[in-house]
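Protocol step 4 of 6: structure prediction from sequence.
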Amino acid sequence: MHQSRKNSLLYFFFLLSSFAISLSSGCEDNIVNQPVNVVFPDSNVSYSQHLEPLFQQGCALSTCHGRASQGGLNLETPSYTKLMNHPTRLVVAMEGENSLLVQRIDGRVQPQMPLNRTPLNKNQIDGIKKWINEGAANN
């Protein structure tokens, strides 16, 4: 076989393999699999200072809840309106324990979020719950 034809075939198979890998990889295969280093205070939790950075680093940038969002939840900036207006009511203000968002991240409702990645830590789960219990304000 002619050398240029071999090179063309190798290049074609390389592209085809790359395309297949990119199609088969979901958010669970993303390189970003480290816990997000957002620390929540014990009170006065701020959506813009605490939740938004957590969602950006751990949910939107991981491609799970970015532009090509899973479950129809896009958490790219700005995310407050998208979160609060999601067709599945994720946040019930003043009711952190009863909010689906909290139940998904603490594992009471499966699948636990973030999907196939390091779970949020206790401080982050408690912080989200505290923000909801404080009224779920866009602050």
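Step 5 (inspection) to follow. The two ends are 67 Å apart (CA to CA).
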